[in-house]
Amino acid sequence: MRLIIDIAMTHIAGRGRQTLVAVIGVAVGVGFSIAMAALMQGGQDDFVEQLVNTMPHVQVTDEQRTARRQPAEDAFDAVAISGLRPRDDRRGIINPTEALSWLEGWIPGRFAPSLRTQGVIRYSSREVGAAIIGVDPEAEPAVSPIVGEFVQGSFAGLTAGGNNIVVGDTMAERLGAGLGDTVTAVSSEGLSRNFRIVGLFHTGTTARDEGEAYVLLKNAQILSARPNAINEIRIKLDDPNAASAVARRVEAEIGYKAVAWQEANESILEALVVRNVIMYTVVAAIMLVAGFGIYNIISTITHEKARDIAIMKSLGFGEADMRRLFLLEGVAIGAGGSALGWLLGFSLVYALSLVRFELAATGQEMTRLPIAWSVVHYIIASSFALGSAAVAGYLPARRAARLNPVDIIRGAT
């Protein structure tokens, strides 16, 4: 085996310029594949992290997964019921104290009850539609991402009691209001109440910054004419990946709809899987192109070394040895390109991590490109490179192994 390795290295060194071009081709493919994978994986991880951090891991609402069975369906053998006028039930989650006590006994995380109602915030003849959310200021910081996102005031302003409100800075800008100003909140029931702004938050998510306002839970209950009611329980888990299992257990026990963050963003997560498939398909295509360069080099060596092959087979080298020889040459070029590609990939990823820019229009603010540093990217890129190199080396190796030494010596080829 050592003799075959020495012969393979001699063949590769004998065509130094072509070998260098092939190695550089593989290195460029591996390097850019690593950089692309790091950038795309970093963007995906950053996006998923934003999803996980900006919304509850599990959200329990006062909705039912399926419509309640009507009493008429039990009393009569009816095929269909039409003209049904359902009862207006505004109680929210029934027996909230019992539900919260049950959650407190086993939930692996934190939770907070709230009452969400739709309404309008008015100030100086201007109006903005908003979700008015009544919260418990002691439990809310454990589940809400806005607590640490205040540009003026703080969430703690709600704990002082009274008619206080915190709103997004974009909403305040649209209203022309500022910290300390008094705004009027009008609910969908037509009830109104004055609130003093004690905090302005900025999450970077436009829908929240201009469409959400937080008040004390009791004030939201009064405003919506729903005393002692809650219609949401938001849960933050120690392990976000356990959200689906927790949601199933909560829904089975309480009976209300419990949605895990994976279910709420199912279409987005499916799109990310498709994007990963596309990314690795592109990586495979890049490595395939680099493989053609290796194939060209090994084919040329096979053609030029035909007489050497004949002599070696005459000396007792078998077909397996010939295949092993030229396959080894292809893999050696792929390995050399992979090693150089690792260095190039690391340099590209490091350079991308230094890029700074500001984006403060819509969506999330960013100051750096999201980069994922992972050894897996290097292993995958090298695997593709070595795989294509092995295929590129095997085809000429198989042809070289089939050559008849007698025909070669006689000049038949």
From TrEMBL:
<feature type="domain" description="MacB-like periplasmic core">
    <location>
        <begin position="19"/>
        <end position="252"/>
    </location>
</feature>
<dbReference type="Pfam" id="PF12704">
    <property type="entry name" value="MacB_PCD"/>
</dbReference>
<keyword id="KW-1003">Cell membrane</keyword>
<dbReference type="Pfam" id="PF02687">
    <property type="entry name" value="FtsX"/>
</dbReference>
<comment type="similarity">
    <text>Belongs to the ABC-4 integral membrane protein family. LolC/E subfamily.</text>
</comment>
<dbReference type="GO" id="GO:0044874">
    <property type="term" value="P:lipoprotein localization to outer membrane"/>
</dbReference>
<feature type="transmembrane region" description="Helical">
    <location>
        <begin position="325"/>
        <end position="351"/>
    </location>
</feature>
<dbReference type="InterPro" id="IPR025857">
    <property type="entry name" value="MacB_PCD"/>
</dbReference>
<dbReference type="InterPro" id="IPR051447">
    <property type="entry name" value="Lipoprotein-release_system"/>
</dbReference>
<feature type="transmembrane region" description="Helical">
    <location>
        <begin position="20"/>
        <end position="40"/>
    </location>
</feature>
<protein>
    <submittedName>
        <fullName>ABC transporter permease</fullName>
    </submittedName>
</protein>
<feature type="transmembrane region" description="Helical">
    <location>
        <begin position="277"/>
        <end position="298"/>
    </location>
</feature>
<keyword id="KW-0812">Transmembrane</keyword>
<feature type="transmembrane region" description="Helical">
    <location>
        <begin position="371"/>
        <end position="395"/>
    </location>
</feature>
<dbReference type="GO" id="GO:0098797">
    <property type="term" value="C:plasma membrane protein complex"/>
</dbReference>
<feature type="domain" description="ABC3 transporter permease C-terminal">
    <location>
        <begin position="281"/>
        <end position="405"/>
    </location>
</feature>
<keyword id="KW-0472">Membrane</keyword>
<dbReference type="InterPro" id="IPR003838">
    <property type="entry name" value="ABC3_permease_C"/>
</dbReference>
<keyword id="KW-1133">Transmembrane helix</keyword>
